[in-house]
């Protein structure tokens, strides 16, 4: 038997779900290990550079850190099986990837950490068992969980913002349920890159933790079925009696998906514009050297940005990673023909996402030696 890939991940990890689903759907054999496994710190971390998940080790021994890089590794090698052929669908797919990994952090964090009566025992089980059985295991578990609770506040989940976070999420969940009543995936009959990005928060936090999972099951059963479907090798579409096998024809972006994106835009657009302004001011002032780390624990702290959603002011960490992924949206647009750009402009305007899709930093972010760095 050929040697398998090794995916260092955790069931309760938001970002792990994205890479795991890609491997499952593309029939790539892998063994999943926790970061508590003895090989992670000793063998993988020195090459991965940061103790983050997911991190992949290939059968040849190469280490790839970060879900976006893992997926890009296989997409580039396999003829991009999860990239739709049309420019409009490519842009929408790439936008969902950004929104899933960066734009839905508030509801993911809120519904995990602010319902302890329902969630605490379940979540603690996973944090506890992600670590080796050592005397300080309990203390390490408490420290890790407290750090993540603090991260929720940094991402903008506060007592003041909870009402608007919940209202937006429920509106989004209802609209997404309407879409999945008609189609099994975002852009038709097979998953695109955007499906995997969106799955991150919708699986580990919102589709597994007891309180939000129950909410999803009861309020949006078609969304819950999509979460299940994204973790199965087959297409898993028995309830669709006219099921196809490909992306929607003619580069179609269905109206049901436009409805989802219009709701997501209410939060994603103002946060993106505020973060871009703050980071660009920081870049202008600090002028980091080319190759300086831009994302993650080795990067300099940039600060928080204020923005308004449905009349509520939210303060959240300005994250360059959002713009690293938005570069992909902008690169698709730049390579499109004039006619395709007109079509892209039209659908982005209809979704209220045009401003966010154009938002950029004054410096590009590249990957080098498993780190995202300033160009």
Walkthrough of the structure:
This protein has 15 helices and eight strands. It has a domain at 5-77: 3-Layer(aba) Sandwich (Glutaredoxin), CATH 3.40.30. The chain has helices at residues 14-25, 38-48, 67-77, 87-103, 105-113, 116-129, 137-154, 162-182, 193-204, 210-219, 221-229, 255-286, 320-335, 338-350, 354-358; strands at residues 5-8, 30-33, 55-57, 63-65, 304-309, 312-317, 365-368, 371-374. The protein has 375 residues and is α+β, with helices and mostly antiparallel strands. The mean pLDDT is 96.
* Class based on secondary structure composition and strand pairing: alpha+beta
Largest sheet: 4 strands, mixed
Would you state the CATH class of the domain at 5-77? Alpha Beta
How large is the count of helical segments? 15
């Amino acid at each position: 038997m050929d040697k398998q890939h090794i995916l260092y991940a955790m069931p309760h990890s938001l970002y792990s779900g994205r890479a795991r689903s890609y491997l499952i759907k593309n029939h790539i054999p892998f063994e999943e290990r926790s970061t508590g496994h003895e090989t992670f710190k000793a063998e993988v971390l020195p090459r991965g550079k940061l103790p983050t998940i997911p991190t992949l080790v290939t059968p040849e021994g190469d280490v790839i850190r970060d879900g976006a890089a893992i997926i890009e590794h296989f997409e580039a090698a396999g003829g991009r099986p999860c990239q739709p052929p049309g420019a409009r669908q490519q842009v929408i797919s790439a936008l969902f990837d950004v929104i899933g990994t960066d734009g839905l952090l508030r509801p993911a964090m809120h519904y995990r950490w602010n319902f302890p009566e329902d969630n605490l025992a379940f979540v603690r089980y996973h944090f506890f068992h992600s670590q080796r059985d050592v005397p300080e295991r309990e203390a390490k578990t408490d420290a890790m969980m407290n750090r993540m609770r603090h991260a929720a506040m940094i991402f903008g989940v506060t007592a003041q913002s909870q009402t608007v976070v919940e209202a937006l999420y429920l509106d989004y969940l209802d609209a997404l349920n309407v879409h999945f009543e008609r189609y099994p995936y975002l852009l038709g009959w097979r998953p695109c890159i955007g499906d995997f990005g969106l799955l991150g928060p919708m699986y580990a936090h919102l589709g597994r933790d007891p309180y939000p999972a129950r909410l999803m099951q009861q309020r949006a059963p078609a969304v819950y079925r999509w979460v299940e479907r994204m973790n199965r090798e087959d297409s898993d579409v028995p309830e669709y009696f006219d099921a196809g096998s490909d992306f929607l024809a003619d580069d179609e972006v269905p109206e049901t998906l436009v409805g989802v994106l219009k709701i997501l835009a209410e939060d994603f657009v103002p946060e993106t514009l505020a973060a871009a302004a703050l980071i660009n001011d920081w870049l202008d002032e600090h002028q980091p050297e080319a190759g300086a780390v831009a994302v993650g624990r080795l990067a300099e702290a940039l600060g928080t940005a204020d923005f308004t959603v449905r009349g509520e002011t939210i303060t959240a960490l300005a994250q360059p990673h959002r713009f690293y992924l938005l570069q992909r949206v902008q690169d698709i647009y730049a390579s499109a023909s004039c006619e395709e750009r007109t079509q892209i402009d039209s659908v982005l305007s209809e979704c209220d996402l045009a401003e966010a899709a154009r938002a950029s930093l004054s410096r590009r972010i590249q990957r080098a030696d498993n780190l995202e760095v300033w160009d």
